[in-house]
Amino acid sequence: MAKRYHELTVAGCRRSLPILNLNEHLAIAGFVMLGDVELCTACARELAKVIPTDTEILMTAETKGIPLAAELARQLGMPYYITARKSIKAYMEDPIWVEDESITTLGKQRLYLTADDIARIKGRRVLLLDDVISTGGSMKALAHLAEKTGAHVIGQAAVLAEGDAAQRKDIIFLETLPLFAPA
């Protein structure tokens, strides 16, 4: 059990986030939207107010961005959104992939899109979406994947910008989240 917590209010929702050591140099506040319907609904509502109005489709990476993408797509009246998968499944036809490196994942991983996903986003204006942007590695991988399909990336959005990402002017976010020294 975490001994330290960071208090966060985002989109009118207050949450107590456990501060977790990633390594001997860095700790992060654990922000998890999975299963939090109130938080997903409120954050999607606020993001809908600030994302580009010409967004045609949302794209996120498995796993933590999925409930946010689903709720934002629902609120915007979009019939679907795209999820880049972290592994190939038996039902995935002709997948394409890129490598991804994230602050919360040890080592490199791959992100995959299926032929159906590619057909849905080719030539469309795509907004990349995640729960947290920190180093930007996952967003770079998503952008590369979208561009490989012929999609036009028109922006990047997240609920939180963590650490140095809070200084970036090229991303949309609702609140900032600091990084912490390990305990």
TrEMBL record:
**Coiled coil (residue ranges):** none
Q: Write the protein's name.
A: Phosphoribosyl transferase domain protein
Top-rank taxon: Bacteria
One Pfam family named in its UniProt record: Pribosyltran
The membrane spanning regions, by residue number, are none
Phylogenetic classification of the source organism: Bacteria, Bacillati, Bacillota, Negativicutes, Selenomonadales
* Keywords assigned by UniProt, alphabetized: Transferase
* Positions of the Phosphoribosyltransferase domain: 55-172
What CDD domains does the database record attribute to this sequence?
Answer: PRTases_typeI (cd06223)
Q: Name one GO molecular function term.
A: transferase activity
